Amino acid sequence: MPVSQPSAPDPRTPTAPNWLPSLVIGGFALLLIEAGAMVVGAWGPLDGTFKGPDSYMRLLRVLECAGGPGCSDGVLLRSNAPAGEALHWPWLWDWVLLLLSAPFRLFMGDRAAVVTAGYLVGPLLGLCTILLLTLAAGKARVAHGLAYVGLLAMCQPYVTFLFAYTRPDHHGVQAAIFSGGILSAAAILSTGRLAWARAFGVLFGLGVWISTEGLISALPLLSAIGVWWTVSGGADKARLNLEWTSWATLTALIAVVIDGPLAGWSSVEFDRISVVHVVLLALMAGFWATALGWESRAATGAIPRWVHSFAGAAVAFGVMAVVFPGFHRGPAADMAEPLWTLWLHHTAEYVPLIRRSDAIEILVAATPFLLAAPLALWAALREHTQRWTWGMVLGCLVWFQMLGTFQQVRWATYVHLLGALPLAWFLGGILSFCARIQAPLLAAAARVGAVVTVALAPVTLTAIVGLSAGRRDYGTLDACEPGEVIRALNGLAGPTGGPVTILAPIFWGPEILFRTPHSVVATPYHRNPGILASYDIMAASPDSARDLLVDRGITHIAWCPGLNWLPYVNAEESPETLFGHLVASEYPSWLQPLPQPSPQVRIGAVSTGVAETQLRDAAAGQN
Q1: 479-496, pLDDT tens digit by residue?
Q2: For the chain, which domains are there?
Q3: pTM of this prediction?
């Protein structure tokens, strides 16, 4: 009897060396883009600056809370002064940053070690994401374009910013976890191995642990795996779904036990992982256990499977609505309604594309979808053995673009990240054509031209439209930054010589906390009622505002005359308010103006009737 020979490996399936070119090329592109950002902007590592309030808040938590023990009851006392701010992010990412900073503590101080880790973690996450996306492209049978997956991903407008050296916040790790989810989901659809289902479940649980946004980002992935069973049937597919939901439930349960709400394991919270999310995942596991038992007894038809799926989803959502009212609102259920109106509704990343008037911003967000979605559809129609994988990719692109267009623009980031896969598939076809060119130099030139054209297409289209429309002048927005304020604040002291309490624009709060010893009233987080207090003070008359300032122990105010104080406090429309008086340089008798740190920024010291002479002396000493 002849011995059967093993089949030759598919040349399009990635082996260990196949992902290396993508990692090297993509990593080089990431570092080159980051270096360019340093040249044209601030050199963050030299002046200790980071990008955005989330980055400062994360590092502040690591330094002051030490992964939890340093902040009693999860409250950061220097924010929302004097009561303190309840922190809603879980501690998992803080623990990772503490671990990454540990080697640097051997030869530098704690603060320097954490700052160093903060600068490194973004690019490291970028490299991990490149690797995961490349492996996912291999599962989708991307052939000749595999080496350029990392390059294509890093050239998308939103992606590099995710992994900037100045962004140690949780958004980059969410993107990396999503990339791992794409890989494991594609592997489930192409191999049907239980190990990949377990990996997907753990990644899903980790994504929800880091941020409950993980529920939304994973929805198209788990839907693809579920619809796979609904359409095709089979106990093996039901078992795969049961496997991943079981491991996701276990991961979420572990998260709640070791990093859940401080009020207790049974505490219901919607803006961080809690028993709510464990119950949801357990309901999903119960659905798939029922489906597996059903499939194990007898073969089922497509229509009964569809009925079972819709009925199961209805039961799960019904149970969640009854047991946890407010679940369907997500984190907004834990948010005071005025916060949404006054603040979050106007925050840039929460404003959907449909509400934006800047054509360039819309083009930057939408171009990757306009390029990648047709290519994903084309791949789904042509790659018959991988139609489920490409269908999942197309579904993800449509899902996130719809969310970015009609809900919050930040969801478009996932379109930019995932768009690298269909672009790589398309590039592979072009490179295959170039390989047929007989003249070596012409073939090489064609390959280079194809790679550069496909990689830079989104950026090029955006630049062309941007130049034709004229450069947008952000004016005061760019000039009114907290850097100069913070340098001035570091020289301040209260009447007793200690730190002061500052009322400042809410987006300055985390940076002031990180770079000074002082306290602030507001930070841009929904559990901070100081946002409402900030509005109440600036919208009040000067006499009423003084009483509010004294009640909170506020000693200093910092403001930008060129910017509104939250969207609904406009100096021109409300000149009678405290903010209107400040912008008009009509200072109340109880406010001592201090030297201007920059032409765009003002600082004033609040006189509470105590040590007014000291306040005047402090102001004079800074001249």
Answers
A1: 477 777 788 887 776 666
A2: 189-334 (no CATH), 480-621 (3.40.50.12610)
A3: 0.90
